[in-house]
Specification:
alpha+beta, Arc Repressor Mutant, subunit A, Alpha-Beta Plaits, two-stranded antiparallel sheet, 6 helices, about 40% helix
Length: about 160
Amino acid sequence: MMWEKALEGKLDDIDIRIVNMLLEDGRMSDKEMADQLHLSKTAVRMRRMRLQRLGGYIKFVGLLVLQNIELEYADVLVRISARAEEGEIQRLIEQLTSDETIYEVTEYLGGRDLLVRMFDRNKLNMKRHLQKIMRDNSIVESIDVLPAVRSYKAWGGVKLNHSE
């Protein structure tokens, strides 16, 4: 798997196998992993807990597939003014990360500074909510909104159910 090469040198082979197992089935028990790895349940639990605690390599999250429940979602590319001060940028990021309709905020190099992923019941609600956020932040120079039509794969390999 691609994860094995990416994690090489950061994790040992057993840790990589644990990560791969959890990517395949996030609910896999320590006992099931132990049986497949030919290790004790305690050894697997200690490794899994270390991966969670130290490196943040593993996080257990509930996954809501927005398109399967017919919610609108979009990627918003944000350009921040070059004159913006660090404190202003941090306040914007804090506002975005605390907004419950925004499920991802990522900082980038290049032509855009932030990628914001958001959802709402419909496109009009999303537009109005986004306009309010941007209106309240004078450091936002421009935005590009890319409404999603359908996702086929996300989160490192989750194939998403999609019906016509």
